[in-house]
Amino acid sequence: MFDVEKITNEIIAFIREYFEKFNLKGVVLGISGGKDSAVVAGLFCKALGSDKVIGLTLPCHSNEQDKIDAKKVSNHFGFKLLNLELTNVYDVFVDEFDKNFKEFGIEAKDLIDSNINLKPKLRMASLYYVAQALSQFEKQGYLVAGTSNLCELYVGYFTKGGDNVCDISVLGDLTVSEVLAIGDYIDVPKEILYKAPSDGLSNLTDEEKMEIKYADVEKVIYGKPVSVEAYQKIKKLHEKNAYKFFIPTYKKG
Q1: Per the domain annotation, does 236 fall within a domain?
Q2: 226 in any annotated domain
Q3: Of 35, 159, 170, 210, which one is least surrounded by beta carbons within 10 A?
Q4: 184: in domain
Q5: Residue 83 and residue 66: Cα distance in Å, rounded?
Q6: Domain count of the fold of the chain
Q7: Chain segment 83-100, per-residue pLDDT in tens
Q8: Is 223 contained in some domain?
């Protein structure tokens, strides 16, 4: 039985203890307009105070509704929300790629996966830029908070070097249903909390993109029965993406 009050209080204590230990001031995180970033923002506001939380919307050929939903989250919890428009940055990068790889016959318009994965990498670079800038200005550290949950991590549903990069993670050991329970407990707006999860980049929900259900991923994680088809798909994703967690390093003998 998931004790939402106990776990929520433990996460808040975990944040406070870590920030006190290293004399840190605040946190920066991307606010996507979805449940995970909303829950993370809410937890940090409760742990540190909303004045120590800086949210960023980082649109990059994105759905305008995501920015509207992000604003709802910031208004609800009372933290500052800034918008860094990355569309032009993305377009310049792609243009430079095409100039340099023209002789190879490679065009960015054909590189669907590369184009999708570039966006979270630009976003993560932006979050770290802002965190470093605030740390320098305030003369006290700001960290980048991660927003990935256990179900996403289990099947490797993240961009390596992008949305998996962070300084502190508070949802990495929590499944989707557990994140939802905490979201309800800390009063995340319902229309945000129960919005179908999506990367905001591919015009598909997470479950449509992966062709699996997060509820089935959670069952597999906790050793509960699922259909053979679901188990095989989840197992395949888990094994195929395991490389994302490790950097093979030669060790001299």
Answers
A1: no
A2: no
A3: 210
A4: yes
A5: 12
A6: 1
A7: 999 999 999 999 999 999
A8: no
